[in-house]
């Protein structure tokens, strides 16, 4: 047991969930500037800290049980805060138990395979948390805004022509995620919802501050011209791929402190629902442990306590 409140993450995550079958229309359905009734000074740091503590504990259990894995999908437009969210939310977990994969334009080798191939290769193992910084959803976002990109995939004509291509890809992605969850890989999907004005402000900071110049390119400005097209593509993505087994959560992203607290809450709520446990040692294993302990105690030098841990004095707190 953690001794911590394990109910608040689900309470914070609940309103962010896209109910399966809901027709989403951005930005009307979700306000990027919503504070959810929270305050940065009073709630932001506290909720993030509590979320990180829960993630630390439940990641240990996840690794020890070695039965389930967790895939966190981060999807958003440029300057939404994905990198910072990963850095802050996952800062307390064991780095050996987490992998982060960033997906950019596919390579020549990747284009020689089906569009899910490169993502399937980066899935987390059991006991691990995997994070996709951008993901297989680029295939129904960037490829939808720039349909000419489909030509690079060298697909047969029937696979990329006609109005049904996007509906088919939604079905393929839903089926793939159902396959993952059926095999013990929980899929946590987070859409960081930033406003056009906030993106403009963050772009200007990247241009004006030399230490942030590396985070901005001319391509970012070009893609901004397609803002309305992307909003429509995201709306369709959320409407068609939020399922009972892998629902989307839309995180308000105009306030980074809130985005991070919400991300920690959704991931923690998923781990709490999985409820991994440390393995229970059976009688035979306990007998082996007893033999090992006896051998180690027998090796203690003369005058030394057989069990140093047991001989260590306990420090009790007293009132002044």
Could you explain how this protein is built, in words?
This protein is α/β, with parallel strands linked by helices. The chain has a single domain, classed as Rossmann fold, CATH 3.40.50. The chain is built from 14 helices and 5 strands. The chain has a 5-stranded parallel beta sheet, sandwiched between helices. α2 runs parallel beside α12 and α3 packs across α12.
How would you briefly describe this protein structure?
With 320 residues, the chain is of the alpha/beta class. 46% of the residues lie in helices and 10% in strands.
Write the layout of secondary structure elements.
Blueprint: H1 8-13, H2 40-65, E1 69-76, H3 82-89, E2 98-102, H4 108-111, H5 117-120, E3 129-133, H6 142-145, H7 157-160, H8 165-182, E4 185-193, H9 196-208, H10 218-224, H11 227-241, E5 248-252, H12 256-274, H13 283-298, H14 308-311
Parallel strand pairs: 1-3, 1-4, 2-3, 4-5
Helix pairs in contact: 2-12, 3-12
